[in-house]
């Protein structure tokens, strides 16, 4: 019994360290979420001004559309890591309600691994595109001609944050699956667990 407890201590310590890193990443992500919200407001203001300038003031506009797109690209990709932490990305949950909590945990871990592989490749490719656009001085084909390194850089930065978030979740999931049931598990259930509890509560009513 004592040997099992001793062998479990390193796993508990690793999980604790990983959760601290996850909390640190979330602190950064929350600050970036404020920037993303301001970017969305900025995109709305830019598009509103574009409509007003074109149809009321009869002015030619050549920068508003691309500026709004750049702001939306940044807000979308940079906020992805925080949304992943909340398990807020769109997912199909038709099968999850039929599985046990332990099987769901394994399923979620495997999905995180596949997602990490895709996002890691996406981040690497985005950094490649960013570097090529920066070195070659690539610009868009519009009359405004902003540098393409801006959207590529935002994509690369956002996907890198998302990949780090997924890497932490995969590592935490691997540590937790090696523990005994109920030992050191997260006290914050994910969206699937909350849905299951709501369904069971409604069934007892």
TrEMBL record:
Residues 188-205 have a biased composition (Basic and acidic residues). GO terms for molecular function: transmembrane transporter activity. It is found in: Cell inner membrane. GO terms for cellular component: plasma membrane. InterPro entries: DctQ, TRAP_DctQ. Pfam families: DctQ. The chain crosses the membrane at residues 31-52, 109-130, 150-172. Its main location: membrane. Residues 181-205 are annotated as: Disordered. It is a multi-pass membrane protein. One of its GO terms (biological process) is C4-dicarboxylate transport. It comes from the Bacteria. Residues 44-171 form the Tripartite ATP-independent periplasmic transporters DctQ component domain. Keywords: Cell inner membrane, Cell membrane, Membrane, Transmembrane, Transmembrane helix, Transport. Part of the tripartite ATP-independent periplasmic (TRAP) transport system. Belongs to the TRAP transporter small permease family. The complex comprises the extracytoplasmic solute receptor protein and the two transmembrane proteins. This is TRAP transporter small permease protein. It comes from Pandoraea fibrosis.
């Amino acid at each position: 019994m004592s040997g099992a407890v001793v062998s479990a201590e390193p796993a508990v310590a690793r999980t604790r360290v990983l959760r601290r890193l996850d909390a640190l990443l979330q602190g950064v992500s929350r600050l970036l979420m404020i920037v993303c919200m301001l970017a969305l407001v900025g995109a709305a203001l830019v598009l509103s001004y574009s409509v007003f300038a074109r149809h009321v003031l009869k002015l030619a506009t050549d920068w508003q559309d691309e500026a709004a797109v750049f702001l939306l690209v940044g807000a979308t990709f940079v906020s992805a890591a925080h949304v992943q932490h909340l398990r807020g990305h769109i997912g199909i949950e038709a099968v999850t309600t039929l599985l046990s909590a332990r099987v769901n945990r394994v399923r979620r871990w495997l999905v995180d691994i596949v997602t990490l592989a895709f996002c890691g490749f996406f981040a690497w490719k985005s950094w490649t595109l960013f570097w090529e656009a920066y070195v070659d001085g690539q610009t868009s084909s519009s009359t405004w001609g902003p540098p393409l390194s801006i959207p590529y850089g935002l994509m690369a930065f956002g996907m890198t944050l998302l990949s780090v978030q997924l890497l932490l979740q995969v590592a935490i999931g691997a540590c937790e699956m090696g523990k005994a049931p109920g030992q050191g598990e997260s006290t914050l259930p994910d969206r699937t667990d909350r849905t299951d509890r709501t369904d069971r509560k409604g069934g007892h009513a």
